[in-house]
Amino acid sequence: VQLVESGGGLVQPGGSLRLSCAASGFTFSSYTMNWYRQAPGKEREFVAGISNDGSTNYTDSVKGRFTISRDNARSTVYLQMNSLKVEDTADYYCQTTWKSSNYWGRGTQVTVSP
């Protein structure tokens, strides 16, 4: 299993970014995919998840601003982030659980700063 994130960067408050996570090594369409983030000095936290049937869930702090989606033909999961806030600054990680093991990408850095 390999997960590779991309799309991070530096953005001003109120701006937008779209993160991507390209997956390989497993039957992507059959598994729930999640985004987590870890801010400096803080624990990693769940951000958003999308199940194999397309149902989604979000942590409260991003509801209405972030949208998770998936493209099974491309084995890719996305996180569209709008109305970004300084407190969204973190390393963002893609995650899935396959055969009872958790797999993580290396992360992509998002910095929201004036």
Basic shape: globular
Number of helical stretches of at least 4 residues: 0
Radius of gyration: 13 Å
Rounded to the nearest angstrom, the distance between the terminal CA atoms is 37 Å
Which band does the percent of strand residues land in? over 45%
Number of strands: 11
Describe this protein's structure.
By secondary structure, this protein is mainly β. It contains no helices and eleven strands. It has strands at residues 2-6, 9-11, 17-24, 33-38, 45-50, 56-58, 66-71, 76-81, 90-98, 101-104, 108-112. The strands form two sheets. Strands 2, 4, 5, 6, 9, 10 and 11 form a seven-stranded mixed sheet that branches. A four-stranded antiparallel sheet has the order 1-3-8-7, with no helix packed on it. It is globular. It starts with a strand and ends with a strand.
